[in-house]
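User: I'm preparing a small set of examples for a lab meeting where we compare how different chains pack in three dimensions. I only have the primary sequence for this one, and I'd like the structure in token form so I can line it up with the others. Please keep the answer compact; I'll paste it straight into my notes.
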Amino acid sequence: MPNVLLTQACVRSCPYCFARKHMSASSPDDILAWEDLIYLADFFQMSGEQRFPILGGEPTLHPDFVEMMVYLLARDFHVNVFTSGIMSNRMLESAVAAFDGIPHDRLSFTCNLNDPGRTRTSLAEQESVKRFLAAFGERVVPGFNIYRTDFELDFLFRLINEYGLHRTLRLGVAHPIAGKKNLFITPADLGRVIERLCSYGPLFERLRIKPGFDCGFPLCRFTEEQLGWYYRFTGGHYDFGCAPVIDIGPDMMVWSCFPMSGFHQRSIYEFNSLQEVHDYYQQLHRSIRVEAGGIYEACDACTYREDGLCAGGCVAHSLSRFWQEEPVRMKEMYT
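Assistant: Understood. Below is the structure token output for the 335-residue chain.
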């Protein structure tokens, strides 16, 4: 499902952000133009896609954020906005008035929440997030990015209960940006991350909050007991794949996903459909897997991977493994 960036400017500087380097290279005036939004709306509908995920940076920094959302809703798109929840009072008031009465399945938010006790967060930012959650609570799916092994989830459970958020917690891990230096969870630490996540199992069950694992979790790092609990509690819905997500920037450049934002960027105008975009990056993913396999040496002979049950972890880890080497692989691996 492709994502559209309204802007690459952000109100936060999270230490784990896998888009940080990408955003820091952009201009504050780098925002999506109206004519480009209309082009993308036409492009999506011609491709048979009625979902329109909105990203940033912080998308609510776009001066026409509310008007653009109203336009997309008028074209019958199902819009999901990924946000920090940090916005001006004026923008929040405008959004509340414009979105009143819109069905929740037509307009929703995924709010990435930071633990104020472990990630530097100003009091003003915390209060802004609370105002946002109070205004849109039932529309909000909470999200949390794991960038250290000693993370806590208790603050998320409190926010879900206090503001009536969606009772699914979207959990992701910070990945490396191929060819760059950033803070991320290493393959060696993924087992510890999974063990800590599963230690919250009783609390997830007691509060009836379902965990949703984002891409990048390798199947082999779960014990049979952990998999059994997750399968039973979530109704059998889990995915250990790694496929192109597709992000489209304000300059109409497209890339596979943020951890791969420096790898084979292309203009959206080079493609005739979203399927063509996906196929292009899917083939690049396959090429990387041929060259580097999965994130562990054991991935090469793993039956989970051979049977298509697991992709072998985040492809950005695999790509990063040989970017430090002499350029002896296929030329496609370095551009």
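A couple of notes for your slides: Residues 9 and 24 are 8 Å apart (CA to CA). Residues 3-271 form a domain with the pyruvate-formate lyase- activating enzyme fold (CATH 3.80.30.10).

User: Perfect, thanks.
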